[in-house]
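look at this fold:
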Amino acid sequence: MSHGTRVRSLIVRPTDVAPQAWANGLGVTRVLAARPGWRISLAEIEGRMPFSPFLGADRLLIPLSPSGVALEINGRVTRVPQHSAITFRGEDHVFADTGSGRVSVVNLMARRSSGRMQWAIRRVSGTIAENADAIVVLAGQLEVRGEIAPPGAVIRPEARAIAVSSPDASIAVMRVRDRRRG
């Protein structure tokens, strides 16, 4: 039993967070990081389902599952492969179609009034240090202070000297920047 203050982990794994229903009640998500004006979540999609509208928000979606996902945005279908990104507006009419399987996707949503999304997907090795609001592990494993970050985990911005502990690791580096500062 600890009698001191509890140290907050620098890693948030999907298993650390309770699932929440989508706003439309048709899917589930786990919010892994949130600040005023933006959030990063890991959503589970199965079959064909509409996305909930988020007026005034920009959205970024990255499939973690090997099969990827087909998104129909305002009537136009785009196939989004594993570890690739697609952006769209929260006002867009969006349907996801996974075929017969279940797909996990990383979802970044940012209010346009709060800032502009910036993101990059990178293959990494060795030790990394990123200037980011959050780092999402897409493939492989990373390590921070002896803790393992598996695919789908978010590494908090306070983390320094992140070690890549498996080959073929990739990450999504995410930032939300104030529009007034560029």
